[in-house]
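Intended use. Records like the one below are meant for learning the mapping from a protein sequence to its folded structure. Do not use them to infer anything beyond what is encoded.
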Amino acid sequence: MIIGIDASRANVKNRTGTEWYAYYLIEEFKKMADPKDQFILYSKEVLQGSLGNLPHNFTSKVLSWPPGLLWTQIRLAWEMLWHAPDALFVPAHTIPIITPSRTITTLHDIGFEKYEHLYKNKEIGPHNYLLRKILKFLVRLFTLGKYSTTELDYHRWSTRLALKKASQVITISQFSKQEIVSKFGIKESLLVVIPNGFSPSYVHITDSYKINSVLKKYSLDSPYFLFIGRLEEKKNITGLLEGFSYYKKRFDSAAKMILVGTPGHGFKKIQDTINAHSLSDSVMLPGWIGEDELNLLMNGADIFIFPSWYEGFGMPILEAMACGTPVITSNRGATKETAGQAAYLVDPANATEIGEGINKILSDHNLRDHLIDQGFKRIKKYSWSNTARQVLKIITIPK
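Structure written out for the chain above:
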């Protein structure tokens, strides 16, 4: 069997959610795939790092010819037209308009359908103004005015294309499955739930010297709290900061917060909130940090706080639990499903509740120990090898 995989998202330097999903699945496929099956990894550029270390039955195919925009809908679609594999797996919901009959994709969540104000909506297309206008006209024409050339419209169009053309759609939580079925009225049999794993880089570390070395680098002392993810409105960073401010004013003015991630939609509101609550000396914005160093920061953190408005899964929750760090997360979306009974759940709209939750965990040692213990038990349910095995079964065994 010849299996094609869209490796474009996995082949980036600073990976986040969906990109890690694609990367870890490909790496696990390399270990467990039937040697008789042939795998083709499609990408925009030459595969980087470990992704480029391919077993004998894996090959790389770089689709780098012009035009540079709309790689999936032009270059990958063209490849499918002339050299289609027996099955195509796309680890995000954007599948090419031309696909083999056996096409499997992963639709992680539909937050952009339900909470569009939480997502950026810039125009996509060529930089040239005239070409951009022509593309916008053509999209309007061929979709009878239903869609334009914005990111949100592309998400909406590509989601409907995936649900229409894919032979099987994977999603990552029961929450996401229910959202998709409810929104689009599709048959539940089209969807299969396969939960994510979490990065094996996150482990519990007892070597205080290693932890202290990274704390010294960032001038940190206990207590400090950690958030990991894109710094965007969807993640409710402003609510997190307001809860943190409440805690500092009420309980401990020396506490610090580290927001690890790159700026996203709504970042200015985050900066404004920091200034409004006079938190510039208490909040650190180090940008993107590699996993080895981030693992040490997670181990040293007193609490990991992840109060998102909407998540399809929430991998950082499990990564914190693997480090033995207690978790505060949202009681909305899929985060409570992922966390189970192993996290302290809060209403993301209630800053006071977030602040009180921080104090509760720090002051109640029995609660803290309970959350840590439950966290270690919780993570045993999840691994990328389990996820990959289930996904590979879907790909290789037709429905």
